[in-house]
Write a structure and sequence with these properties.
- It is a single chain.
- Helix 4 packs antiparallel against helix 7 and helix 7 runs parallel beside helix 8.
- Strand 1, helix 2 and strand 2 form a beta-alpha-beta unit.
- The strands form two sheets. Strands 1-2 form a two-stranded parallel sheet.
- The chain folds into two domains: about 210 residues, no CATH class; about 35 residues.
- It contains eleven helices and four strands.
- It is mainly α.
- Bound molecules: iron/sulfur cluster.
- Iron/sulfur cluster (SF4) binds next to helix 7 and helix 10.
Length: about 260
């Protein structure tokens, strides 16, 4: 979606694929191939950055490792005694609480920084007019942090930052990618986000289930609080039982006649 919008604004675009964060390497390849297919369809170029997961492990992963000690999404690792600190037993009420956002934000900031610095340096070297980012289309990212890091990286490289909050287009982007039959990943990219993605999906599923059960209980309560409705239900049940009984008697008589 961001590529379409940028072109509609009159920009001649090239996509730089800077994703040393993605693990495992097969997933990195899969997403790259998908992007290349889409770019060929839309008629824009893709440049691949250096895939350097070791650099990401050195720069960003240590922040993620320290986060594991706190995040409810990593409760299992915590329970296995990976830290001496005591986890909170509070049940998270929201996805943000589950993922312990403030700390996760630090890790994602470092991740954005690394990739946007690489993209901005490449853009400056290739004499591009400016840099935008498709990261800003996802409602699951820290949009304000992305904006700050894009401006920071561009100022450092001496190019223009073109930030736009594309989140309002997320649903449309999702719909288009489904219609095109494109691969849709279910985690952001890094090895931490694999577990966070799974925890988030399980959390949302559990919340939906709890809401459904609460609605059913409310309905039942409302029905039993209404004596007229309860009487109507009992009458309907008695009628259905009487009809079934009648049918069984008639069936028995028919079978008896056939036998005579
Ligand atoms: S969740 Fe996404 S943005 Fe955050 S550190 Fe992992 S790959 Fe980077």
């Amino acid at each position: 979606m961001p590529t379409t919008l940028l072109r509609e604004e009159g920009h001649d675009i090239t996509v730089f694929y800077a994703n040393s964060n993605i693990a495992p390497a097969s997933e990195y390849e899969r997403r790259l191939v998908e992007l290349q297919k889409y770019a060929a369809m839309q008629g824009f170029d893709v440049i691949e950055g250096t895939y350097d997961p070791d650099a990401w492990e050195k720069t960003v992963a240590p922040i993620g490792e320290s986060l594991k000690r706190y995040s409810p999404a990593f409760g299992a690792a915590f329970a296995q005694g990976s830290s001496s600190e005591t986890p909170s037993n509070d049940v998270p009420a929201t996805v943000a609480e589950l993922l312990d956002d403030e700390r996760r934000k630090e890790r994602c900031r470092a991740c954005y920084r690394m990739r946007l610095e690489e993209a901005a340096a490449m853009a400056a070297e290739g004499s591009y007019e400016g840099l935008a980012t498709t990261l800003a289309v996802s409602p699951y990212q820290f949009t304000e942090v992305i904006r700050e890091e894009l401006h920071r990286a561009c100022a450092q490289a001496g190019i223009a930052a073109h930030f736009e909050d594309y989140r309002p287009y997320y649903d449309e982007a999702t719909r288009i990618s489904r219609e095109l039959g494109m691969y849709r990943q279910n985690y952001c990219g890094c090895r931490f986000s694999v577990q966070e993605g799974a925890a988030t999906r399980a959390f949302i599923k559990q919340q939906r289930k709890a809401k459904k059960a609460a609605r059913a209980a409310e309905r039942l309560q409302a029905q039993s609080a209404d004596p007229q409705a309860a009487r109507a239900r009992a009458q309907k049940k008695a009628y259905a039982e009487a009809q079934a009984k009648k049918k069984a008697i008639l069936k028995g008589l028919r079978e008896k006649r056939k036998g005579d």
